[in-house]
Amino acid sequence: MDRRSVEIFRPPNLSLVCTVHVHKKLINSISWHPYMTSKSPVKSPYKHWIATGSNESYIHIVDLSNILGKLLATDSEQNTEPVVVTASKRGLDGHFGRITGVMWSPHIDGQLASVSYDGQARVCLMITLMFWFK
């Protein structure tokens, strides 16, 4: 297992679906966007997004909609080759130290909080890519 990547498995047999490899250093925090939020009580449009923070000062946002959408559309446990994702959809570079935590808001779609060794906690709305608070 590479500690610079995230592996996504399919239950119940835990077959590997994809590996997300966008960081160069150890990943410290992973957060999957909530399936539902207060703003989207049925399904969030970002339900297939993950945010990852590492010993780098950069946060990666990866959209797995294409991969997971195809997977959920098939009922059978097909022997498909795992996909390797090497590019993120979006990224945040507002911190100056390694990222120690990332967490999506359960209330607002696309709102991400992050903390870092730079001593700052930041909140960002991914639609605008603007930090609201430091």
Describe the structure.
The protein has a 4-stranded antiparallel β-sheet with strand order 3-4-5-7, with no helix packed on it. It starts with 5 loop residues before the first strand and ends with a strand. About 5% of the residues lie in helices and about 40% in strands. A hairpin with a 4-residue loop joins strand 10 and strand 11 (about 130-134). It is mainly β and about 130 residues long. It has one domain: 7 Propeller (Methylamine Dehydrogenase, Chain H), CATH 2.130.10.10. The radius of gyration is 15 Å and the shape is globular.
How would you concisely characterize the structure shown here?
This protein is mainly beta. The chain is built from one helix and eleven strands.
Can you give keywords for this protein?
single chain, 134 residues, mainly beta, Methylamine Dehydrogenase, Chain H, four-stranded antiparallel β-sheet, 1 helix, 41% strand, globular
